[in-house]
């Protein structure tokens, strides 16, 4: 691990903004906790995300199942990025949104990219809790592409995730 400027940690090809992430560990109800990465567990989550992305890409299953698989993969990968950077979600309300927001600080995703995942998260909640009953092909394809892009970004940022 190489420290680069006081608040950035070099991570593969990208940088982790530790100052912003450290701020999220403060207060009476922190959003994050500092934690050592468990690389075996994180590699397992990456493998699980890969399988889910593959499942989401199969046209023979329902759109709802494909969307759910791609969404789950994106969330697991956002978690992997956070935990690879040395943090874990505190389990507070909004923890999934927090995982997506932290992509700006873990894999340098621009706001427009993580916000789209947040929008798809809101769609997932509406879908799962009955407010809407269907998802479109476009929404499924967007979710799959975003999960694939996130997989590539996580792998590039954290070479420690490569299989032993």
Q: Please tally the β strands and state the result.
A: 5
Query: Could you say which structural class the secondary elements and strand pairing correspond to?
Result: mainly alpha
Outline, from the CA principal axes?
globular
Q: Report the CATH topology name.
A: Four Helix Bundle (Hemerythrin (Met), subunit A)
Q: Any idea what the CATH superfamily is called?
A: Nucleotidyltransferases  domain 2
Which key terms come to mind for this protein?
globular, 164 residues, two-stranded antiparallel sheet, mainly alpha, Four Helix Bundle (Hemerythrin (Met), subunit A), disordered N terminus, 7 helices
Provide the fold topology.
Blueprint (H helix, E strand, L loop, with lengths): L1 E3 L3 E4 L2 E4 H6 L8 E3 L4 H18 L6 H22 L2 E3 L5 H7 L1 H4 L4 H18 L8 H21 L7
Helix pairs in contact: 2-3, 2-7, 3-6, 3-7, 4-6
């Amino acid at each position: 691990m190489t420290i680069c400027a006081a608040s950035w940690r070099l991570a593969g090809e990208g940088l982790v903004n530790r100052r912003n992430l450290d701020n999220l560990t403060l207060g009476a109800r922190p959003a994050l906790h500092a934690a050592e990465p468990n690389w075996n567990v994180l590699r397992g989550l990456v493998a699980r995300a890969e399988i889910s992305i593959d499942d989401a890409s199969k046209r023979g299953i329902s759109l709802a199942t494909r969307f759910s698989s791609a969404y789950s993969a994106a969330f697991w990968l956002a978690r992997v990025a956070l935990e690879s950077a040395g943090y874990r979600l505190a389990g507070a309300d909004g923890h999934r949104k927090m995982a997506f927001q932290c992509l700006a600080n873990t894999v340098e995703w621009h706001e427009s990219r993580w916000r789209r995942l947040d929008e798809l998260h809101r769609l997932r909640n509406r879908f799962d809790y009955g407010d809407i009953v269907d998802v479109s092909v476009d929404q499924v394809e967007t979710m799959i592409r975003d999960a694939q892009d996130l997989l590539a970004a996580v792998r590039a940022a954290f070479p420690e995730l490569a299989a032993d």
